[in-house]
Each structure stands twice: as structure tokens, then as C-alpha cells.
Amino acid sequence: MPDFPLATALAAGPVVLDGGLATQLEAQGHDLSSELWSSRLLHDAPEAVVAAHAAFAAAGAQVATTASYQVSVEGLAAAGLDATEARRLVVRSVHLAERGAPDAWIAGSVGPYGAALADGSEYTGAYADEIGVDRLRQWHRPRMEWLAEAGADVLACETVPAAAEAEALLEEADMLGMPVWLSLTTVLDSDGVVRTRRGEPAGEVFAMARDLDAVVAVGVNCTDPDGVLAAVTAAGVAGRPVVVYPNSGERWDAAGRRWTGTAGLSPHNALTWVHAGARLVGGCCRVGPRSIGALAAALRPAPSGEPVGPHNGH
């Protein structure tokens, strides 16, 4: 990994994230249809995870996000694995990322409670109010501690759908004293307001991070690219660098069980986000190494020090 903190790099200019790890693992021929998704491969095919990280690193990603998004004690217990094995797999996720991307910062993925339910509820946040902040803190704590102990450079608290869960994650990160970014999954409503999937104004959630030293960035992921620019503006209230890694822009046709639309993360859009204030930029679902490579090329500094792109004559 680099010999200086991610926060230092973000202060100097844009940093390129990786893309959808599950997307790349599927492209490598792996079936991720189980309730454990890509985390199953931490147990069954660790070398595949190394190869996926290496593909993104070769494309120009400067951050490798671990395959721990859906790892939980409860989820693994349902698959016949105990808490000791859960800890071992979380630690392994960090070491596999280090092997695949030795020159990258390692972001320990902390997915939402809803991801472990494998029922799509991370896109509604319906559970958050019922469970409450204290219980969510308890649920997230072991994985966050294991990722920190394993040597992750930063915790990626990502695809967070509700204010209560964001509060729980921020309080836990503050207690742990570990660098963290908070990334919401959001929608842009008809009035142009960026909202969590639970319906709260995203700006109010971002503001929770304003006075927490552990927070290195706030922003959005697993959202439509069309809503990212508004989200960058909304995230500015936190006074932190902004992280954005949207989906490819394709949409899932549930009836036809297929993706529709145009795949790929637009480098032109990414440049627009950077000029609006984004500093940590990558992709999520359906974004593979090719798209990250195009993004990295677009954000590579020109001789003037500005990212290459239409804003500086390239």
C-alpha cells in the first residue's frame, strides 16, 4: 500500500476506486447466486478474489475494496459456519486484497444490515427504525473491529440506506478511531432533493459526519449516475472530501430478468463530478476493469495538474 494515508491523497486530488467486485467475479465465471454472494468465494475460491482485485489494480484503481460486504456472523451461521470462521474470512478478505493490489489502499467493506438479509432491504432501509441505532452498532461492531485489526487502511461503510444505520456506523467508527468513509445509496426525487432509500434528506445524514475526525469522505454508491452530481453538492455540508461510485447506468428489468440500457461508467461524467468536488471516484454494480481503466485515464493529471478532460482542453 502507499506509504501515506488516503486522507493525504484526497487533499491533493482525485483518487480512483475500483469497480464492482461481484461483477468482475461473475465475469471470471463464478456463480454468486447464493445468499453469501461474493463472500462465499472467500471460503471456496480465494484465488479468484485475488485475481479480481488484480484486474482492477491493473486497470488503474488505487483503492481495493475487500470482499467482506455481506459477511456477517448470522449469515455465515445460516451457511453452517461459526463466529470464528466469520472472523477468519473477514481477516482473509483484507489479506487477499493486499495480495491482488499490493500498491493500493485497502478499504474494508462494511455493507449494511440489509445486505446480510439477502432480501433487497438495503435498497429500502425498512429495517433501520425497527432495529434502532444501538442494535445496529452491536451488529456492525465485530466486522469493523476485525477489518481494522487485519490492517485495512480505511473502512468503507457503503450502500447505507437509512439515517439510523448511518448514525450507528459513524458512532462505531468514532469509537474505534479508524478512518472511514460513509457512502449512502440514494435517489433523486422529483423536486431535485437527494434522499436516502428510506426517504430522509441525504444532506441531513451527511451532516452527521461534520465533526467526526475519523471520517475521511462522505458520498454515495450503488445509485444511478444521473443523481450523482446533485449528491456531490448535498455531501458538501459535511466539509469532507466526497466519494462517489455509482452503478453502470443500466437498469434491472425484473420481469425480463435482464439488464437494460448502456453499460459503462462515463469518464466525462466522472470529470464533471470531480470538478464539482468529488475526490474518491469509482464504480459499483456492473462496472468492470475496462470502465475503471477509462476513468483512471480521464482522471490522470495533465501537466497543468488538472485531470485530463474537456475542462482543460483535452
Automatic annotation (TrEMBL):
Keywords: Metal-binding, Methyltransferase, Transferase, Zinc. Binds 1 zinc ion per subunit. One of its GO terms (molecular function) is zinc ion binding. Its cofactor is Zn(2+). The keyword GTP-binding does not apply. Gene3D superfamilies: Homocysteine-binding-like domain. It holds the Pfam family S-methyl_trans. Residues 3-299 form the Hcy-binding domain. Zn(2+) binds at C222, C284, C285. This is Homocysteine S-methyltransferase. It comes from Geodermatophilus obscurus (strain ATCC 25078 / DSM 43160 / JCM 3152 / CCUG 61914 / KCC A-0152 / KCTC 9177 / NBRC 13315 / NRRL B-3577 / G-20).
